[in-house]
Structures are given as C-alpha cells and as structure tokens.
Amino acid sequence: MDKGLACAVCGGKPSIKVSYLDSYLCKEHFLEYFERRVLSTIKYFNLIEEGDVVAAAVSGGKDSLSLLYVLKKFSEKLGYTVFGIAVDEGIQGYREYKLKALKKVAEKISVKIFVASFLENYGLTLDEAVKIAMRRGFEYKPCSICGVFRRYLLNLVAKELRANKLATGHNLDDETQVFLMNVLRGGVPNIAREYPISRGGHEKLVTRIKPFYFIPEKETLTYALLRGLETPFVECPYVEYSIRHGIRRWLNSREKEQPGIKYKVAASSLLYGEIFANIDRSLSSLQTCKYCSAPSTSEICRACAFRIYLGLTPGTIRLKIHEI
Ligand code: SF4
Ligand code: ZN
User: Fold this and answer.
1) d(CA 268, CA 257)
2) Which of 25, 295, 317, 320 could bond 286 through an S-S bridge, CB–CB 3.0 to 4.6 Å?
3) Are residues 313 and 167 in the same domain?
4) 56 and 185 part of one domain
5) Residues lining ligand 1, CB < 6 A?
6) What's the 293 CA to ligand 2 centre distance in angstroms?
7) Per-residue pLDDT tens for 14-59?
8) For the whole prediction, is pTM greater than 0.85?
9) Whose CA is nearest to atom 4 of ligand 1?
10) What values do phi and psi take at 115, rounded to 5?
11) Is residue 38 in a domain?
12) Nearest ligand 1 atom, CA 239
C-alpha cells in the first residue's frame, strides 16, 4: 500500500485525511485523536467540573449528535451529569426529521432529551415568523430570528432544568465564520464574547461552553459517521439566506489551498477577544431586560425586541417543555 494512504499511527486502512497534519488516520486512531482534543479543550479551559449538570444543546444534526455522544462518554470519568435540550423552531420538512434522529441516538446512549418549541413558547413557528418578517419588510433574515429565539429558549430551559453549563456543538468552522462576520460587520468588540466558555455573568445566564471549539466541522461529521450516529441529510430551507453561507464557502476554499488556515483564524479570534475583553470590561457585564428580566447586552433583550417587531407581546415566557 502507498504509505501516504495509510494511517499515520498504525499503517492501517485510512478513514480520513487530516489535511492540516498532511496525514491519514484509521477509524480507531481518528476517534482517539478526536476525543483526546475535546477532552483537552474541556480541561484546558475548565469547561466542565466535577458535579456539574451539563445541558447539551442538540438539534439532531451530526455536530450535536457527536457532542451528545462525547459528553455522555466523558461524563462518568469527569463526574458530571448530562442531558440534551432541543428546540423545535417549527421549520416544516426539516426539524421533524432531525428530532426523530436525535431521539433514536439519545435512546441508544441513554441520555434524556427535553424539547421546547417556538410555537408553544413564543406563540408562532419560525415559518410563520419568517412570513410576517417578509411581509413587513424587516431587514432581519430567518437565521437572525431563529438564532435569537433559539438561544433565548435554550438558556431558559437549561436554567429551568437546573443545568449550570450549556454545551453547544459550535466547531472550529462556526467560530472562524463568526469571527469573520464580526470583522465584516464592524462588530469587532463582539469578538470578546466568542470564547470556549462564556465570559460575563448574570444570575439568569447559564454558562455556555464549546467543547468542539478546536474541531473542524469535517471531523465532527466523520466522528458521527464512524460512531454510527445517523441523521437524514435534509437541509434547512432558510440556509441560503444566511450571510454565513458565503463566508463558509470562502473559508473552505481557503482551507483547501492552505490547510490549517482555520486554526490561524481561530487563534486571531482568541487573541483579539482577550485584548478587547481587557480593554473594555463592560463587555463581560450584562444588563437585565426590562420586559422579561433575561440577561441582555442592552435595555431590551433581542428576543423581546424581535417579539415586538413580529407583533407579539414581549415579557416572561411560561415555559413549556416536553421530554421525548
Ligand atoms: Fe435556523 Fe438558519 Fe439554522 Fe435554519 S439555517 S435552523 S433558520 S439558524
Ligand atoms: Zn426580554
């Protein structure tokens, strides 16, 4: 066998090419390499401590299934408990399939999953919100409404279920895309808010952690595949509206030309984040929304602001959660 096409550790059959290492890895050594890096991110940034109650934000996509699997796997060794929270945005022809896949994997690895829907908690689905937004000519794209409403619900549900950490499946690709978006939008100080563990506290904010911060998306997908975590290939119909889509394509083309460039962008993000966090301490202090008393960077939180835009009533939500 051509040596270049063999696992760099054992010489066995390769399962993945890790371009930035200019190496191939077999299934066993890739899984080990993947888990070792996640564990070292958890330890280095002190993401999880013994006794923690970790809520994993899960969507049923490959990233989140990998996250759930890995968090469950480490839970005994590190002494924490874990469960999953999924948000059903109400995206017809998409979310229902992903939730089905999530339920199957969660049962297989014995993790509880709690679901909160936009419809039951905000009074409308994302599909309906998008129609209203388009009719009224709002500048906000579906992903902005979706992201704000989802993050808001995840925090509420995690708090309600007494989690003290909220883990998300954000990977290296997500982090580098967000960094570039912040640069392009002139939102450079926002970079300080993006970190493997959330800075800044508020009694109603559950600390967010990103165990996959240094893992490329391609590897979270390969991990899910090799672990047999199946999910149907359906794409959100709104993905094309996201400005992230273009940045993602551009970054992937750069990475192809110059393997490892995403790590360089992530390093810049961490560095600028440190600098801004030190310059402006107010970046890490949060206010309280005047309508719902949720943590907010301004007087009105974005979820309440969007509810007002959409003609809904802002304020405290009476949470409805289901276990699946
Ligand atoms: Fe929501 Fe946009 Fe993701 Fe679709 S692509 S689930 S609208 S954030
Ligand atoms: Zn609010």
Assistant:
1) 19
2) 295
3) yes
4) yes
5) 89, 142-143, 146-147, 236, 238-239, 242
6) 6
7) 999 999 999 999 999 999 999 999 999 999 999 999 999 999 999 9
8) yes
9) 236
10) -120, 135
11) no
12) 5
The two structure tokens encoding residue 29 = 């050594």
Task: Please report which ligand is nearest the Cα atom of 144.
Answer: 1
- The answer to whether position 67 is within a domain reads yes
Q: Cβ distance 268 to 31 under 8 Å?
A: no
Residues 195 and 96 in one domain: yes
- Please give the tally of structural domains in the chain: 2
Residue 312 Cα to ligand 2 middle (Å): 12
State whether 13 and 116 are in the same domain. Answer: no
Please give the biggest Cα pair distance in the chain: 66
Q: Which of 1-5, 82-86, 88-92, 185-189 has the lowest mean pLDDT?
A: 1-5
Note whether 118 and 244 are same-domain residues: yes
The single-letter DSSP state of residue 205 is -
At 1 the pLDDT is: 45
pLDDT of residue 286: 78
What pLDDT digit, counting tens, does each position of 157-171 carry?
999 999 999 999 999
**How far apart are alpha carbons 301 and 322 in whole angstroms?**
25
Considering only CA atoms, which residue is closest to atom 8 of ligand 1? Answer: 143
39 belongs to a structural domain: no
Q: What is the mean pLDDT of residues 218-230?
A: 95
Q: Is the same domain home to 220 and 96?
A: yes
Q: Report which of residues 199 and 60 the model is more confident about.
A: 60
40 within a domain of the structure (yes/no): no
Residue 28's domain comprises 1-33
Whether the per-residue pLDDT at 200 is higher than 70: the answer is no
- Ligand 1: residue whose CA is nearest its atom 6: 236
